[in-house]
């Protein structure tokens, strides 16, 4: 995606987020002041899954701290150890980021499925409450025609009077903190069916009848007055769950939820079970990322062999080579997890750095910084200062690899007669002799004086001119 595309997608996301926030503000929150157990339970499930699939910031901050330490430490052994550690933490972060992204995508889909299913269930739950309004001993049937409308109870119309938006409830987490239902409850899916009882003497059903008085309404022996017996219209039955995998009930108590049909029921069961799995799996924080937790990691073995042992990496290592690598890990990062925590990691966390270039900027211990943005600023400054230090130590000097100079000043290092030639000569017998400069000490001084002039010629040259001169080389790169 281009930078323009990223900007457009970011802007779109910001606009959508703002619209949702405004919509939530306009709702006012009254509809969620007393959420039903089923709605609260659904919100808690979503909240738990969101928390479980959040980015693993701990590993990323450990990586940033190790990278800062690598740039600031003056201990070369610690710097080399930090290089391999940063590589390990980078791989952990990448793997967990991919896992987290996949899990968050799954959690988002499940949350949408659950929210949609609960919207339907909420309406069906209201319909279950619908009841006919009772009327006893109306005007006698005889005489002129009389009419009476059959109505629903004022508070039991079957029409939802409110709606608790799950997103609104998730924003008000205080309602979800005390005694969380997701730990103790489980959904019990039910389907609606009409009350099956037929009309008759004293039947438990809504009906018109020749009315009696009081509690004997709609029983035998009625007068010639018309009456209406009030009663609910619907009851429930166990939902058809098909082959959906139901969450284990164990010691959980049930929360009734009304579903429309088998498809609706299976959607709720799947979302509930999968969100519970995500909430308890916690993939992003399964294990802390440390050298000892990854002591058998092939990629970490490659780093240790290459960076710490200074040997070429191989596709496979022998048992002896593997032992050498693991011994090096223990030698550098501590013999066990505690050794690592109290050793290199402690030195990293105790390192003091600044988040600004100003000389007056206050240094802070890395362990006290829990903001990724600040750690990134610290890393950028540490890298810049390290680069500046390397640059300031660079200089133009004579090329000491010149074979003529090597020969003129290292005659004493030649121990065999057939090696002693050029500006050197062999004095004494082949067995007891030695290699000396031609012309003795005076000859050696002349050679060194020539080299000194060469150093003077190179000194002070800037990098472009230095690299062009065959007798000079640029040191510090």
Automatic annotation (TrEMBL):
<feature type="signal peptide">
    <location>
        <begin position="1"/>
        <end position="25"/>
    </location>
</feature>
<feature type="compositionally biased region" description="Polar residues">
    <location>
        <begin position="389"/>
        <end position="400"/>
    </location>
</feature>
<feature type="compositionally biased region" description="Basic and acidic residues">
    <location>
        <begin position="416"/>
        <end position="454"/>
    </location>
</feature>
<feature type="region of interest" description="Disordered">
    <location>
        <begin position="389"/>
        <end position="454"/>
    </location>
</feature>
<protein>
    <submittedName>
        <fullName>Variant surface glycoprotein 1125.1214</fullName>
    </submittedName>
</protein>
<keyword id="KW-0732">Signal</keyword>
